[in-house]
Every structure is written in structure tokens, then in C-alpha cells.
């Protein structure tokens, strides 16, 4: 017996490996539900803190619960001295930013005793990683640029703090809303590879920091953390709307894939592309380079038309990466921080899945099919 007869499913495609109340991806209908809400609604209305609370507690917070969470995040946001020293050492070596985030994330196990949550280690781990991710990313970016990190401001919310710590200036409402829309949109997305990795790790009753570090490792790979950078590069390469069709056609003829289009699960337009497209439109109309937004729209139109010619019947549509690139660029974030900013949002989902797995899950322990040799004869080393 081999392959599917034996129950082997490469890549676990189509295998249901967890039950969750956190999010549902309907690839046929092009819908994403997050804890009962269409992603469009959370993206537009919620603060990131509200989404974190919703994912952790399966309910929206009341005024006091929200204030408590904001206060707890503010207490956990500053980095321990050892984390900062680690980031300084990494920056002096030119360590790639995702590796620096992974190393610094591990130090979330360093405890500030004043911020203890009644000895609830899992809750403290979750607060530490969610609160500190933006601090780590912003500090590292500044250190790489030869600048000193900016301390978080306890009066600012999560998204505002991220931009403040990156740029040293309190951001405008439009930028905060645009970043919050992005973080809310990517906070959770079914049983993707990094979320699955996190669930596997805590299914052994390991700790949440270990799970999040493992998830970061999975996210780093180009097949997952995605490549919003390349999607933006293509827009810049095209430069003018009238060149869009010719440049894209040439890429397809060379057998290249158009970055930011097509999706394994969504077989219609990725709902997150709509949400982020609208947010990008608003951002660019108020404080951005409107011509770049218009150019991106033309590139999208040309790409979708060419892809339907290139792969008729496949319905290859815009995915989340295309407008992620545009939105984060509009917020002034450099390309090398795009995947890290994704992690700043997705860590909410990772920690929520860990809680769910700890509450209801069973040790995740699938089987493998042995396809190696049998009955080998042992030969002593001098005779091999
Ligand atoms: N550009 C050109 N051709 C594409 C394409 C794209 N963006 N996306 C899919 N296709 C083609 C494939 O080459 C394939 O052709 P084939 O049947 O001749 O082999 C066909 O359409 C189906 O693609 P397939 O690889 O089966 O789709 P998938 O569901 O496995 O892949 C992606 C999904 C995301 C990997 C794929 O669409 C892709 O590579 N997109 C570009 C990268 C990107 O934007 N990634 C971010 C995803 S969020």
C-alpha cells in the first residue's frame, strides 16, 4: 500500500486537523469570518486591542475590559534590557530582521514581575509577545539605521505606538487607522502553516513563547510569510500605466508568476484584498502619492485580464499581498519590515490558537508512511 490508500495526504491538503472558533476561510465564496464577524467589519471598526480581546475571549470587551487590556499591553510593551542588548548585537552583525525578531521573541520569557497576571504563565506569555513585537521591530529598524530606539508611549494605542516607535513622531489618525485595518485583517486566517506550527508545539503542553517562536520560523519561509515586497517591485518596475500590459505579458511569456495574484484557498477575489484596497485608497487620497495608487489600480486591472487569458477558467484574482504592499509602503514602512509587520498582526491569532489548543486540543501526533529500505545487512565500518 502506498500514497492515498494509506491515508497519506501530501501537505495535509484538505485534512481537518483542528476545530476552532477563531476564524473561517471560505475560499469558494471569498469570505473570511473572524470570531463571528466578517473581516470587513473588524477591519473597518475595531481597534487592534479589541481584535486581540475578541480572539482571546471569544467576545468583544466592554469599556473596562478594554481599558484593562490596553493597560496590560502598555505595561508589557517596554523591552527588558537584555532584549535590547541582543538587538544591538544583532544589528551590529547585520542580522536579517526576521531572524532578529525570532531571537528577541524568545526573550519574552524574561519576566517583569510587576506585570505578572496572577501567575497565569500562558496569559503573561501572550501579553509579552503581543505587546513587545512592535517594540522589537521598531527598535531593530532604528538600530539598523544607526539610531537609538524610541521608548513606547503608554498614552498611545498599539498601532499608534508601532508607528511612533519607528519614526519618533506621534502618527496622524489616518495612518493609525490604516495600520489598524491591516493588523486586524491579518490577525487570524484558519489553520495556516504558522498557526498549525504553534498549535503543534503547545499541544505537547509546551509554553506559548516556544509556540510563537516556532510560528515565526514557519512564517519566515517565502511560501508563507509571502512576498508583498515583490508585488510592489513590479508596480515600480512598470512605472507608467501604459506599460502595464506589455511588462506583465512579457513576464507571463517568460513563465514568471505575477506576484500578488492567485491563491491556494481563495478561488475568487481574496476578501482581504478588498479591505486593504479600500484602506490604501483612503490613505493615498489623504497623505500619500495618489499617482502610485492609480498606477497600482491599472496594474491590477491589466494583471487580472492577462491572467484570465493566460489560464482561462482558473479565475486568478488579486490576493492579500498586492494591497498589503501598497498600504504598508504608503505608511512609510520599508519593504524589509513587511513580513515582520505581518507577524505583529498574526501573533494575536497564534496566541489565541494556543489558548484554544490548551483548552480543548489533543496532542497532535500524526503518523508517517515508511518508504525506506527493509532487511538491510549491518556491515562493520571497515567493510563498507
Ligand atoms: N501568475 C501566473 N500564473 C499563475 C499565478 C500567477 N500569480 N498563479 C497561478 N498561476 C498559474 C499556475 O502557474 C498554474 O498553472 P499550471 O496549471 O499550468 O501549472 C495555475 O495557474 C494554477 O496555479 P497553482 O500553482 O495550482 O495555484 P496554487 O493554488 O497552488 O498557487 C499561489 C497559489 C499563491 C502559490 C500562486 O497563485 C502564486 O504563485 N501566486 C503568486 C505569488 C503570490 O502572490 N503569493 C502570495 C499568496 S497570498
General description of the model:
Helix content is 57%, strand content 3%. A three-stranded antiparallel β-sheet has the order 1-2-3. The chain is an all-alpha fold. Helix 1 (39-45) runs antiparallel to helix 8 (173-186). The model has no long low-confidence stretch (mean pLDDT 93). The protein has a domain at 228-330: Orthogonal Bundle (Cytochrome p450-Terp, domain 2). The two termini are 32 Å apart. The protein is globular. Strand 1 and strand 2 form a beta hairpin. The protein has helices spanning 39-45, 48-57, 63-76, 81-93, 97-106, 121-144, 158-167, 173-186, 193-202, 208-220, 228-238, 244-253, 271-287, 290-310, 320-330, 338-360, and strands at residues 23-26, 31-34, 37-38. The chain is built from 16 helices and three strands. The longest helix has 24 residues, at 121-144. Coenzyme A binds at residues 226, 257-264, 307, 311, 314, 316, 319-321.
Q: What's a concise summary of this model?
A:
The chain has 384 residues and is mainly alpha-helical.
Provide tags for this entry.
binds coenzyme A; 16 helices; globular; mainly alpha; Cytochrome p450-Terp, domain 2
